[in-house]
Structures are given as structure tokens and as C-alpha cells.
Amino acid sequence: MYPVDYGYLEGTVAADGGGMDVFRGSAAGAGVVGFFVTADPGKRDVEVKVLIDCTADEVERVRRLLDDVLGIGGLLVPRCTETATT
């Protein structure tokens, strides 16, 4: 059912009492590429789901899972890859 590896971030607690959700893709070494912030009216909670080592295609597949399969949607907050210049 999950488009990429899915699990929980050890040592964390999310709104639902479990660990913070993590989706891990195939882009080894990319690190945290972004987050999805979701609101689940059925569970009456808001969660942050971490995207680690995900390609752009894998991020899109996670978005489709959240929108089309789970019906909870989510706001994608991508990691800023630009550096500030002074």
C-alpha cells in the first residue's frame, strides 16, 4: 500500500500517540527533503510526516497516497535547497 518505505522516527511522539511518521525513498544520502503536514478529521489530529531520501517522483507518490487513498491530503513543505548570500 505504501509507495516507499514507511515507519516511525524513534524517540518521537506524534499527535496520535505513536512515533512521528517517516517515508524513506530511494535517493540515498539526500536526507530530509521535506514534510507533509496533514489533518485527519476522522482521527481529529494533525501530524507532520517526514520525507527522507525521497525523489521528486516518490514525493508525488506519497502525496497521491495521502490525497487519493487515505483521503487526508497534506501540505507539502519542501526543504529549501537555496543558500542565502550576503
UniProtKB/TrEMBL annotation:
Tree of life domain: Bacteria
SUPFAM superfamilies in the record: Inorganic pyrophosphatase
BP terms from Gene Ontology: phosphate-containing compound metabolic process
One cellular component term from this protein's GO annotations in UniProt: cytoplasm
A GO term for molecular function: magnesium ion binding
InterPro entries xref list: Pyrophosphatase_sf (IPR036649)
Protein name: Uncharacterized protein
Source organism: Frankia casuarinae (strain DSM 45818 / CECT 9043 / HFP020203 / CcI3)
UniProt lineage: Bacteria, Bacillati, Actinomycetota, Actinomycetes, Frankiales
